[in-house]
Design goal:
Length: 75
């Protein structure tokens, strides 16, 4: 097995959907903040889709679908 250099890293990518009643920015922020409670070394969040869910009485729920990468430390 090849030895890993000190400056090489491995990252894992997961997909999340954040929601907010205020904005897409808040929806993305909520997803990252929630993920940061259980994951460490978060790196990059890439938003892939924005949409709005319309409730029965017209209320809006902003949704941000995103990929989030974090440093992989092994199992």
């Amino acid at each position: 097995m090849a030895k890993k250099s000190k400056d090489s890293s491995v990252y894992k990518v997961i997909e999340l959907v954040g929601t907010s009643k205020t904005s897409w920015a808040d929806a993305a922020k909520n997803a990252v903040e929630s993920a940061s409670k259980t994951l460490r070394d978060l790196r990059v969040a890439e938003v892939s889709k924005l949409d709005v869910k319309v409730g029965k009485s017209g209320e809006l729920q902003y949704r941000a679908k995103m990929k989030l990468s974090f440093k992989y430390h092994g199992e």
